[in-house]
Amino acid sequence: MSAVRALTAADFDALVPASGAAVIDFWSEFCAPCAEVAASLEALAAEHEGAVFIGKVDVVAEPALAARFEVAALPTLLFLRDGAVVRRMVGVRPRSHIAREMAALA
Q: What is the DSSP string of the chain?
């Protein structure tokens, strides 16, 4: 079972914590670089379980969420603190870079 929670427009606001830290991955199965980011997030989710909520949004299935957060390129990671976007990362980054951004959320 994945430690990264799949999100839809119907459950996004209920599942993404309004307080605390969250990382949301906007991806598509047609995006090859997205798979690399997804692997990093799975590993980081296991390491940070309970400390940081990690979710993913398939932009093909959920275009309204992509529009809501102005996602224009894939992969896009949004780092949220207390429900507000504090950092946006576009493109593939090393796992260590993603981990540093996650740590900055705490």
A: --SSEE--TTTHHHHS-SSSEEEEEEE-TT-HHHHHHHHHHHHHHHHTTTTEEEEEEETTT-HHHHHHTT--SSSEEEEEETTEEEEEEES---HHHHHHHHHHH-
